[in-house]
Design brief:
By secondary structure, the chain is α/β, with parallel strands linked by helices. It is about 45% helix and about 15% strand.
Length: about 300
């Protein structure tokens, strides 16, 4: 297993989508550029959801069209359905992600579809994306627990993940949408899933509602997973999932990786500049648990 972690920063999408302060296209672009400058090479930039449902992402077309992506970097966008995919392709996106909630109620609350219909929509979108030559990721949301139905059975998560994999998703991302999981839950779900998929086809997406995101990440690492979502400054929260808090902070995951001799390609001090930009854009101070320490280190090294 590789000694590198591959981190997708979802701050520009998941981190900003629920913010009450509207962030300009230029501001989002500046944040993405700062993440590139800090060494991030995988970024989820925006969502092609309905602007009425997610107003913060209404500028998705303009953002993607005006974004300069380094040759060695990848930018993905979230698409809810085939119409979203069409918009993404027209804007020039080269990688998309779909989201399937693992429970009937979450799908109905989120997209007003039952689980079977939502699964078919994801299948069709992945098939069309593959035909268009796009890279694809597929999220299984509320994979550990649902705010409406409680604990999610690992057998259902595995079943849905395999359905998406068979539909063409190159990466399956298991998402703790409401931040309810403990490391034992992560082990439970990954033990079941990794019996059917190789670790390099699986990613994880943790929220820090109960302060366990970093511990959950370490559990995933010990299971061989090397693909992680994280969000600059810990920004985030799902507008359709009651109680969801911010994401695992990119700086916390990157610092843990560095201290555990796992490569990320991320410059932690440069990452502080991206945290500052994120704070300015949302109008309040953001930062993970390690942010103050990183700032002190920066100040000491600059003295």
């Amino acid at each position: 297993m590789t000694d590198a972690l591959f981190i997708t920063d979802v701050g520009p999408r998941d981190g900003l989508q629920s913010q009450s302060t509207m962030v300009s296209t230029e501001g989002k672009r500046a944040l993405i550029e700062a993440l590139f400058d800090a060494g991030l090479r995988r970024i989820e930039a925006t969502s092609f959801a309905s602007p009425k449902a997610v107003p913060q992402m209404a500028d998705a077309d303009a953002l993607i069209r005006g974004l300069v992506v380094p040759d060695d970097a990848r930018v993905s966008v979230l698409v809810p359905n085939q119409r979203g995919l069409e918009r993404a392709v027209e804007a020039g996106a080269r990688e998309i992600a779909v989201v399937l909630a693992a429970t009937e109620t979450m799908n109905r609350k989120n997209i007003r579809m039952g689980l079977d219909q939502a699964l078919q929509t994801c299948r069709d979108t992945l098939t069309d994306a593959a035909r268009a030559g796009l890279r694809t990721r597929a999220y299984v949301a509320v994979a550990f627990a649902c705010p409406f139905e409680g604990v999610t059975a690992e057998a259902r998560v595995t079943e849905l993940a395999l359905e998406m994999r068979n539909a063409g998703a190159s990466e399956i991302v298991i998402a703790d949408t409401i931040g309810s999981a403990a490391p034992t839950d992560v082990a439970r779900v990954l033990d079941a899933l990794l019996a059917h998929l190789p670790p390099d086809a699986v990613g994880v997406h943790f929220h820090d509602t109960r302060g366990m995101a970093l511990a959950n990440a370490w559990c995933a690492i010990t299971h061989g997973v090397r693909r992680f979502d994280a969000s600059i400054g810990g920004l985030g929260g799902c507008p359709f999932a009651p109680g969801a808090a911010g994401n695992l902070a990119t700086e916390d995951l990157a610092l843990m990786a560095q201290q555990c001799k796992l490569e990320t390609g991320i410059d932690l001090q440069a990452l502080c500049a991206a945290i500052d930009i994120a704070s300015e854009l949302v109008g309040y101070s953001v930062g993970g648990r390690s942010e103050r320490w990183l700032v002190r280190q920066q100040q000491r090294d600059g003295a």
